[in-house]
Amino acid sequence: MNPSLVTPQEKNDKASDVPSHRDANISIAQARPLLTSVAPKCGWRRLLQDSMTVGGATAIGQVLGAMTAVLLRALMSPVQVGIWQGLKLALSYGNYAGLGVSKAVAREVSLSSGGSASASLRQRINLAFSVNTLMSVAYAIALIVVAVVLAVNGTQLAWQWSIGLVAIAVLAILQRFVTFRVTLMRAEHQVKSTSLLSLQEAVITLLATVVCLCLLGLVGLYVSTALVMLASCWFLHLRHNHRFRFAWHTSEIASLIRVGGPLLAAGVMSSLFRSLDKIVLLTTASDGEFQLGCYSTALLVAAQLFGLANIFGSVCGPRLAQSFGQTNDHISVARLNLRLVELMALGLALPAALAITAGPWLLGLLLPDYRAGLPALVPMTWGTVALGLAMPCQHCHVAWNRGRTLLVALTCATVCAIVLNVFAVMLGGGMYRIAIATMVTYGLYFAVLAWLTIRIVPLAELRARIIGAAIALSPIVLATTLAYAGVATEAVGVGISSVVALGCWGAVLWYGWRRQGWRDIFTRPGADKN
Fold this sequence. Notes:
Blueprint: H1 8-16, H2 28-35, H3 44-75, H4 78-93, H5 101-111, H6 119-153, H7 156-187, H8 191-216, H9 218-239, H10 250-284, H11 288-327, H12 330-366, H13 377-399, H14 403-426, H15 431-454, H16 459-472, H17 474-484, H18 491-515, H19 518-523
Helix pairs in contact: 2-16, 3-8, 3-11, 4-7, 4-10, 4-11, 5-6, 5-7, 5-10, 6-7, 7-9, 8-9, 10-11, 10-14, 10-15, 11-12, 11-13, 12-13, 12-16, 12-17, 12-18, 13-15, 14-15, 17-18
């Protein structure tokens, strides 16, 4: 063939060995050698090693966190737990007071491959630190104003909210300092340090919460949270080599806001999306604090599952940005993202299945006062799995600087969540109906975001990865079937259901190892290079 007659697209296809949409009719078997060629720039082994490092520390932290959550509910009434859950919402929104500059800077650090920062990048980091500090102080002042209004015009219950909001105002400033440093460390791939920090936080949280709660009651939670954050500040001061200083440059800050603003708006919308069920319970029920306290048993399991998803997500996010920064190739990053979703589905399937089979029975024994919230556990588990699988897709759009796409997807999902929650309230409300509405919206959000991310992937590979992810989730389907069939209501049934779910997961792992190319990630030498 005359080289002059070869189109640029054909040259790219040959160079990258990636099938285009014209090759959609090739079989999955023919495409399998191509499916295993996708890998992060650091290599699959390095990515998995980092995940294991984070996972080891996080697994210990998850166990300690679960113990803390159970002890907290054992020592407090559902009403007190409901108040604490509401205050934690106010604390979580404090992370978005920085106008998006920290997200923009973290993206720049990730795109620089985690190397030593240039002088201009260090300057932008200092600008982000300054904006974050000032805005967190402004947020704290706003919380104190709300607390004063509640204290002047409120009841005894309102007084408890007022005291809590004042405490949250102080904690919001500490939290913003900690999360800003941790965000930079993750962007710089400092996996070991962030893992040690999460382990330290879990240990101190368990000890401080039990001691302070026994001595001071609900106020003890505020004190213990402050102690954990102060310990984290000390750890970060020792481990993170960047020393911040206040700086101000209006045009530079405006540039950061333009990049990070859509990401910030997406983050705010994401928090609203994830907390809408709590807000609805707290504001529509006559005994909202009690309802939210009982519902928190399902949230406890959901938080543990989402923490497991975050293990992999916190590692793969910077890797996706690094790959895009080095290749500027949307298709290769989308292919990598699709493989990560498939592997995350495999990783979440077993703990989610065990949570469905054993969670309601175990929590019912440990926390009998909170049994009213246990029916919501199954739909919340499914919803959390969907939300976890959306995490790599979110990181993909951040790497592509498509914050507006994230914002549109989250806005549509939030509107859908509002409509479904209103419908659930019209039907009589209740924790189970609201959990169903939440599960549906989480699933729709994942489906929309995944499609926006992976639609550019060649069709043969797309089919193979979707089949792999669907098969990986089959243990959860089986566990749900057994749970609704009434098998997992007694100790013997729980044991049988858990063993069956474990066997199903093992069969899925064997199938993927043989047929989906999962073995190549661990054993194929070329999988360490892209």
